[in-house]
Amino acid sequence: MIRDITLGQYYPGNSWVHRLDPRIKIIATLLYIVALFVVQDFWGFAIAFIALAAIIAISRVPLKFILKGLRPVFIIIAFTLIVNMFMIKGEVLVQFWVFHITREGLHMAAFMGIRLVLLIIGSSMLTLTTRPIGLTDGIEALLSPFKKLGLPAHELAMMMTIALRFIPTLLEETDKIIKAQQARGADFESGNIMRRAKALVPILVPLFISAFRIAQDLAMAMESRCYGSGIKRTRMNAMKLAKRDLAGSILLAVFLAIIILERILI
Prior knowledge:
β1 (92-96) and β2 (99-102) form a beta hairpin. The protein is built from 10 helices and 2 strands. It is mainly alpha-helical. It has helices spanning 22-38, 42-59, 63-68, 74-87, 103-128, 132-143, 153-183, 193-199, 201-224, 243-265; strands at residues 92-96, 99-102. α1 crosses α6, α1 runs parallel beside α10 (243-265) and α7 crosses α9. The two termini are 41 Å apart. It is flat and about 65 Å long. It has a two-stranded antiparallel sheet with strand order 1-2.
């Protein structure tokens, strides 16, 4: 289960999506998320699904690898479905004890489930197709206009990227600790909720120690390379918009226009 989390991971490739400017991909991801909340019917989700499927096909990231990232959040998706299914009032279809399953509840459960799945997959495509250094440069470039207001754009971009980058590292460290504890006879699956919660203590303590050790090593590595905040830094590879970025912007505008028209006309 731990290794199934794909958030923050980069899948190497040389596709058209991989070579897009990070700034375009960040803006596209944010607008795609906004579009998912603008949509109010299943036709809109069908348009969003087709657009996302096209991006996945072009990026050549294996679908199995992408869907693997849904396993850790399956509980959240299932909880969302159950809450909407039983809490929405309307025409009762099934009734047992104090629970009622309504037609409106089923509709809302399916609606929220599809939105959540598209949201997770759409967001993960940003990190899967963008190198961490490119993501940092893209975030910094988008936040740079706010420097006049005193916003530390470079520091914020660096913190966000480091946080994403070290999610796989901490997950791998957690997996090692769990296997080491299981080899010593630890049981994390049997017993009630309180017993399982107590069984997590031998995992959390060494995990926190390992996280602080990794953070200290990273800080020492940055200091040894004379990294400092507030210093104007140059990039080895300057970001420049190419024809493919213009094409991506046009496709994004077309997608948003179709979503808006679908919301108005249907």
